[in-house]
Design goal:
With 274 residues, this protein is α/β, with parallel strands linked by helices. 31% of the residues lie in helices and 26% in strands. The chain has one domain (21-273): P-loop containing nucleotide triphosphate hydrolases (Rossmann fold). Helix 6 (189-204) links the parallel strand 7 (177-181) and strand 8. Bound molecules: adenosine-5'-triphosphate (ATP). The site of adenosine-5'-triphosphate (ATP) has 10 residues, from helix 1.
Length: 274
Amino acid sequence: MTSTTQVPRAVPAAPHAGATLEVTGATWSVGETLVIDGIDCTVPAGAVSGLLGPNGSGKSSLLRGLAGVQRLDDGGATFGSADLLRMPRRERARRLAFVEQDAAPDRPVTVLDAVLLGRIPHRSVLAGDSAHDRGLARAVLGRVGLAALADRQVATLSGGERQRVHLARALAQEPTLLLLDEPTNHLDVGAQLSLLALLRDLAADGVTVLTALHDLNLAAAACDHLVLLSRGRVVAAGPAHDVLTAERVHEVYGVRCDVLVHPRTGRPLLALSE
Ligand SMILES: Nc1ncnc2c1ncn2[C@@H]1O[C@H](COP(=O)(O)OP(=O)(O)OP(=O)(O)O)[C@@H](O)[C@H]1O
């Protein structure tokens, strides 16, 4: 993703840009365990929102529920005027793309073909890839810094490279709502910052972005809005300086921190101590 400024923009201004995601009462249990427990949250239009919380707090479960990978037991989600959870699958895939945690391909596939999977919702059932599809897939590979690896087998890539293939496939969908589950896993620090810069570019184009993140400082630096989960519930939501207070970080994560002010951005900077 070091090449974000050197390649053509592959994802144009979203045609239905500017929609807000509203989640109400999202609930999901496994057996007797309530994994997410009546989550209400607003994910602002055309902004990058961070979904935070300790391990097991329900971030992936919420994202999977919103993406339609896992059916929620209760609750709703609207994206603009559309009912996200009751939308036909194909229609949802034209608006929403989901980058899951390190999903390995289940069959041999090249990087380019993996990215082209993102075009399926946009073409008729029997049609193959068009020249436009292939051009767009190559452009998104450029945008995530993988242009040179288009013909490699996905199985031969490093974890960080594979993560970028998942992102490129999602971008090939030309989503207006992009959900990501810890997309910075496996990425080195430069690639993490490039990824967040790319998400910010997408938001500036009108895409609504919700991304689970573990790194609180990365979230504070890159997100316009944060939603903090604990034990399947929202404990705080809003701008970083409201959500990431020392008291709340201690209460939710059990660690002490000093909340400083970043000397250049003015955003919160957490110095964690135990
Ligand atoms: N299919 C499942 N069967 C049983 N338990 C599950 C299932 N899916 C999730 N859970 C449990 O629900 C809880 C929340 O899991 P989830 O993956 O949503 O958390 P998370 O916040 O994404 O965690 P992490 O930061 O570790 O990725 C965990 O305790 C997990 O073990």
